[in-house]
């Protein structure tokens, strides 16, 4: 039975939120503690009170409650609980945290290198006191194979550079200290300077001084009064002779690690491999006609242009499958020959910092469109200096296209530990004999440099003729000839 003084148990439970909130604010703790020990329904009431209190966010609540509550409640097992007749004023404040690490100084370390790279040289893009935004490049670390960019982890100001420019670092070496959320003094002063500029221009210009009276013109008779012979020539002031511009001088620049590594590897190739070069020429008429016919449809479907590189890469993959010795490599440590059943072709790309050779993998499974997409993606990464070491590891054969610079003829150098490299050159119109007649055709010289320790002349010449036949007539790929 519920006594008349408390008509609904739910209403009484709602009124009990006042002393329970007092428990949260630190007022009236002893009566509530006794109540908790005697009543089993308080737990439900506590849950409702906490749920109601959680709906108030980011506000200061001032409430003064003075009212009467049920004097008696009857619960199971005939236990009674009494509540105080009134509650004192209580306060509930909620706080919202802001940026805790606003002016925190963090130390940025060198990122981890690939397994084949142990150290690099630092080239700073920012100085102490410079403001940086999040992900803005602070420095570059030049390694033997590529450059690793180190961005700022957050917006702030460079506090200290821990490594000098050109210093050697390893993975995990502290590079610089960054104060988060700060602004450089130049940034703070700039707005005030810009605001003062219009104010400085606001005062009206001072009144112009009165112009001096004009000199009366010389009468024309005065100029004619003296004969020409009597006029003495006046000396004209001559400028001093200019200093000679042919100044001879020298400028020494330290070689970066990538250039040093390229020079070392090229010299190792000359000292290790027994390099020999064979040549041939390719008639580019058919591949040019195919490109002219299908370039618009290819661009519309694949959103990129159809070039000649994909034809040579696919032809090289076809020839490497036919002549596996050119795709093999000598393991000098174990004195074994390693034959590969896959084709990963390195495409040489010239960058301002040196020659890089990103790898197009599994070319034997690609078509022309797949090859063009892969080459374009790697070329874009090379231009943005975003090539990783993994993009340049593991090639089995290299193609170098000197024709983009207008090269007519050349002998490429093997990229160790590979066993051969194909050199492409420029396309020039030349007279050639076709069926007993002289015709002008677009021709390209191609050169294959190979390691004669592994590849014999028969394999090298057959390989180069296979590339010639595929480029001159791509239908050979469909016939698997």
At a glance:
By secondary structure, the protein is of the alpha+beta class. The chain has helices spanning 9-15, 17-25, 29-38, 42-53, 185-201, 220-224, 257-272, 285-302, 309-322, 368-383, 457-472, 475-479; strands at 60-63, 73-74, 80-81, 90-93, 105-109, 119-124, 131-132, 137-142, 147-151, 156-161, 168-170, 174-180, 275-283, 329-331, 336-338, 345-347, 349-351, 354-356, 359-360, 397-401, 420-434, 437-451.
Give an account of the 3D structure.
This protein is elongated. The protein is 30% helix and 23% strand. Strands 13-22-21-20-16-19 form a six-stranded mixed β-sheet. The protein has a four-stranded antiparallel β-sheet with strand order 5-12-10-7, with no helix packed on it. A four-stranded antiparallel β-sheet has the order 9-8-6-11, with no helix packed on it. The relative contact order is 0.09. The chain contains twelve helices and 22 strands.
């Amino acid at each position: 039975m519920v006594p008349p003084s408390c008509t609904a148990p739910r209403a009484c439970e709602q009124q009990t939120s006042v002393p329970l909130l007092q428990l949260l604010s630190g007022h009236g703790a002893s009566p509530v503690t006794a109540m908790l020990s005697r009543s089993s329904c308080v737990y439900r009431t506590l849950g409702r009170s906490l749920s109601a209190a959680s709906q108030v966010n980011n506000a200061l609540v001032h409430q003064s409650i003075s009212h009467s509550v049920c004097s008696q409640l009857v619960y199971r097992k005939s236990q009674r609980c009494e509540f105080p007749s009134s509650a004192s004023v209580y306060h509930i404040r909620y706080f919202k945290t802001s940026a805790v690490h606003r002016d925190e100084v963090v130390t940025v370390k060198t990122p981890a290198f690939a397994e084949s790279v142990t150290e690099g040289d630092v080239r700073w893009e920012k100085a102490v006191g410079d403001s940086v935004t999040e992900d803005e490049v602070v420095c570059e670390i030049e390694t033997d194979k590529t450059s690793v960019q180190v961005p700022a982890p957050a917006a702030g100001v460079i506090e200290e550079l821990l490594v000098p420019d050109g210093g050697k670092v390893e993975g995990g070496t502290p590079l610089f200290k960054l104060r988060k959320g700060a602004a450089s003094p130049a940034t703070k002063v700039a707005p005030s300077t810009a605001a003062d500029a219009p104010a400085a221009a606001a005062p009206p210009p001072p009144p112009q001084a009165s112009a001096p009276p004009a000199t009366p013109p010389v009468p024309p008779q005065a100029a004619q009064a003296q004969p020409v012979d009597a006029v003495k020539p006046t000396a004209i002031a001559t400028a001093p002779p200019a200093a000679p511009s042919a100044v001879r001088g020298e400028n020494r620049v330290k070689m970066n690690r990538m250039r040093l590594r390229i020079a070392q590897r090229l010299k190792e190739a000359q000292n290790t491999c027994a390099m020999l070069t064979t040549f041939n020429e390719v008639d580019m008429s058919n591949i040019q006609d195919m490109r002219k016919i299908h370039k618009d449809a290819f661009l519309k479907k694949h959103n990129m242009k159809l070039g000649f590189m994909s034809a040579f890469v696919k032809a090289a993959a076809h020839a490497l499958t036919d002549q596996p010795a050119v795709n093999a490599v000598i393991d000098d440590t174990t004195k074994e020959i390693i034959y590969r059943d896959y084709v990963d072709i390195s495409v040489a790309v010239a960058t301002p910092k040196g020659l890089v050779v990103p790898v197009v993998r599994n070319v034997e499974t690609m078509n022309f469109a797949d090859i063009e997409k892969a080459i374009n993606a790697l070329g874009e990464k090379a231009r943005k200096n975003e090539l990783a070491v993994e993009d340049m590891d593991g090639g089995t054969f290299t193609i170098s296209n000197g024709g983009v610079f207008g090269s007519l003829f050349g002998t490429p150098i093997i990229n160790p530990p590979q066993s051969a490299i194909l050199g492409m050159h420029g396309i020039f119109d030349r007279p050639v004999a076709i069926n007993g007649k002289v015709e002008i055709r677009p021709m390209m010289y191609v050169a294959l440099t190979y390691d004669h320790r592994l590849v014999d002349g028969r394999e090298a010449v057959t390989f180069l003729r296979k590339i010639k036949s595929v480029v001159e007539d791509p239908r050979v790929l469909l016939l698997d000839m």
